Amino acid sequence: MTALATASVPGSEAFASEFAARKARFAADPSWMAARRQAGIARFEALGLPTRKVEAWKYTDTQALGRQQYRLADDASLAPAVKDALALDVDAYRLVFVDGLYNAELSDVAGLPDTVRVVPLSDAIVNQPEVIGGSLNRLTGIDFTPFVALNSAFTEEGAVIQVGPRTVLDKPVYVLFLSRAAVEGQPVTMSHPRLLVQLGSRAEASVIEHHIGESGATNFTNMVSEVMLERGAVLNHYKLGEAATGETHIASLQVEQPRDSQYRSINLNTGGGLVRNDIVCDLNGNNAHARLDGLFFGRDRQHVDTHSLVNHNEALTFSDENYKGILADRARGVFNGRVLVKRDSQQIEAHQNNANLLLSDRAEINTKPELEIYADDVKCSHGTTTGQLDETAVFALRARGIDEQTARGLLTLAFANEVMTGLGIDAIAERIERSVAGRLPSRFHLDELVDLSVELGGGAVAVARDEDFA
Amino acid sequence: MLVVKDLHVSVEGKEILKGLDLTINKGEVHAIMGPNGAGKSTLSSVIAGKDGYEVTSGTITYEGEDVLEMEVEERARAGMLLGFQYPVEIPGVKNVYLLKAALNAKREAEGLGEIPAPEFMKLIREKLAFMQMDASFLQRAVNEGFSGGEKKRNEILQMLVLEPKLAMLDEIDSGLDIDALKVVAKGVNSLRNEDRAVLMVTHYQRLLEHIVPDQIHVLMDGRIVKSGDKSLALELEAQGYDWLQEETA
User: Fold this and answer.
1) Which of A326, A436, A469 has the highest number of chain B CBs within 10 A, making it the mutation to test binding with B?
2) CB–CB of B216/B203 below 8 Å?
3) What is the ipTM, given to two decimal places?
4) Looking at the keywords, is GTP-binding present (chain B) (predicted)?
5) How many domains does chain B have?
6) What 8-state DSSP symbol labels residue B133?
7) pLDDT tens readout for residues A264-320
8) CATH code, domain carrying B243
9) Which residue of A lies nearest to B106 if distances are taken between CA atoms?
C-alpha cells in the first residue's frame, strides 16, 4: 500500500489505493487474470493519467480524475422501474450492468440461437477461461492508453458476445450500462467494463452499447472494447452515450477486420461531463470495410473528444468516416481522425468528414484530420467544416409561422440528419432527436409522417432527385 | 385590413422608404411596380419582419394590430405570408415537415388542435395536384436543388396550404417561363376571395395579365407616386417610368 501510494506519477494514487484495498475481491481470479491485473496496475502506475503534454490528450485534461477518491460498486441492485425509464424500448437480447456490475434480474437473453453466446464476462471467465484468456486484451494490449492499463487492473464485468459462423442474428444485442445517482459523502463510483465481440465467418449481428446515468450520477466509467471479426462477418455497433452530466466516460475500442468483413460504428453521444472515445480499426484483408459514423452534441460545459484511427494494412480496403458535432453554451468538442495507409496498401479508399455546428459564441471545437499515406495508388479525401445555423433559414421558417425555438430545433436536427438517416433502429433515432432538438412540439420523426411518406411511395428516408415536378 | 402610414425605412443607414402610404382592404389585389431600387421589395420584407430593416417612423397596422410589435412568426400566424423572391434552400428539412409544422402552428394560434394525419394528407394531395407537383417532392429538402420555377411553385404551394389573409408576393414571376407562370398565377388566383387580399411586387406587366389587380401603385424613390387601376400597367409598359418622374418632380 505504502509502496503504491508513493508512486511518482501523479494521479495514480487514488486508483492504486482502491486496488490494494480490494485484494480480497479479486482473490478468486484464475492465475492468468491475477497476472494481468498486476501488469495492468503496474503499467498504469508507470504511466499515470495522461497529461496535456501528450499530443493525443492535448485538448482533453484528465488530471482532475487523479484528485478524487474511488470505490468499486458492491451491488448492482436497481428498481426495474428505473431501468425501464432509462432503457431504450427495443426488441433485443439484453444484458444489464449497474455501476459496472451484472444485474441478472434485469437481463434477458432468452431465445438465443445455439450458435450464439451472450454472457456477462464474469460467467465467461469461469466457463470459457481458455477462450477469454486468449482474447481479452489481444487487440488493446495494456499499452494502448493508460486507461486500458487501468481497466486491465480492475476488469471484472462486461459483455461477451460470440456469434458462430454464418449465423445471422435476428435481433440486436442490447448491452445497457446504468449509473446510479451518487450517494453523498461516498467516493466516486468507478467501473471498468468490457465489451468483447467475436463474430465467426459470415456471421451478422447488431450490438447496441448504451451508457446512461440517473441524474445525479457522478460515475467514472472506463470502458474497453474489442471487436474481432472473421472473414465476411458484418457488425453494426451502435454506441449511445447518455451519461449524466456529472459523469466521466472514457472508452477505448479496437476492431480487427480480416478479408470481406464489414464494421460499422454509429457513435452517438449526448451525455457525460467529460467523454473520450478512442476508436481503432485495423483493416487487415482485401475488401474489408469500416464505416465510422458519429454525432456528438454538447451543451453547458460538456467536453466530448473522439479520436479515431483507421489502419489500412492491406490493399483494397475501404473506410468512410463521417462525424458531426453540435456544440452549445460553453461545450467543447474534439475530433481527431487519423487514417494511416501502410506501404503498398494500394487501391484503398479512405474518406473522412467532420462537420460542426456551433450554437453559441463560447462553444469550441478542435478538429484535425490526419492522413498518412505510404502507397501511391489510393483514393483519399478528408474535409472539415464549422459553422453556425443559417439565419436566413431560421427566418424562412419563422416567416411560415414556426416559432423560433422550433425553427432552430428543426435546423439543428437537419444538420444531424445525415448521421440519423438510415440509422436502422428507430428507438435510438428518437432518443437523439429528443436530446438534440429539445422542445419540438412533436417528434421530428413523426410516425404519421413516416407513414405518409411510405404511402406516398417515397419510403421513410427516400430522397427523390429527378422528375419531382410534372 | 392593412394600413401603412408615412412609413420610413432605412437599410444600413440609407433611407429606402421615405413616407409610404398604402391601404389594402379585404378582397383586393394590389400590385406595386416601379424601377429598380425604388424600394419595392423593402415594403413586403418589412411587413414580414425580415432583419436588417430599420423603421425610423410611420406605422403598419393589420386588422387593427401594430405589426411592428409582432414577432415574425406571429405575423405569419395572423395571416401575413411573404412569398420570397429568392426562396431559401433549407437542407435536411423536408417539405412535408415544414408544411405540417407551419400548418399546426397556425392552427394552434387559431385555437384548433393539430391537424389529423388523414386530413393533412388529403389536403396536401389536393394542393400538390393543383400546383402540378409530384408527391415525391414532399420528401425533398425545402428548395434544395430546385430550379427557379420549382421554388416559386413551392412558395405558392405553402400559401395554398396555409391560406394567408394577406399574401405578399415578391417578384413571384421572376425566372418563370410562361407555363410555370400560368400555374403560379392559377395558384394565386385560387387564393382570392372576399376575405383575403394580395400584395404583389413586380417589374412586369406580364404577371398582371394572369393575376389581374384591383389597384396598381407606382413606387419611385421610396414613395408611391401614382395609383390607378389595371390600365396603369399598360401605360407603364408603353411609356416606362420617366414620365412619372417628370410629372412628380
Assistant:
1) A469
2) no
3) 0.95
4) no
5) 1
6) B
7) 999 999 999 999 999 999 999 999 999 999 999 999 999 999 999 999 999 999 999
8) 3.40.50.300
9) A401
